[in-house]
Please model this.
Amino acid sequence: MKIGIVYYSRTGNTRQVAKTLEEKFKEKNAEVDLIEIEHVKRPGFFTAGRASMNQQELSIKNTDFDMQKYDVMIVGTPTWAGRPSPFMKVFINKAENIKGKKVAVFGTGMSPLDKREQFKEIMKNNLENVGIKTVENYLLINFKRGQIVDGEQNIDDFVNTVLKL
Model:
């Protein structure tokens, strides 16, 4: 199985989870590519939150995403104000050969439980708008000052779910 893990990480937390997932999948003999979305300009805290709340698109450097070679894609994003980062929406709208792909989602941040459902709904809608149905199993990892405080126990279940797709 060939898996593409596409993620945006502003502080390094989402990158940390993407690399952990990469290791877990490789342990189970899956081929994995990490693809980091790069911003044109790193938004400040308030700009990022405002753009996320309004689901505005923010510019990314790398826009040539061809997902043809992947059996499964995993998209990962921080949550800002209980919503996915705007950079992920840009990726979803620009990626080539993404329609019909099997996609799993993970999110990182400090969002309270009630905001997690909002995050899932927005990601699901963004993906469905381009013809993608997501897996129902979302991985949500809460961080505080760079340390995982909740969700780490769900990583193995998430990996096993993705491998069954």
In short: The mean pLDDT is 85. The first strand starts at residue 2 and ends at 7. The chain has one domain: 2-163.
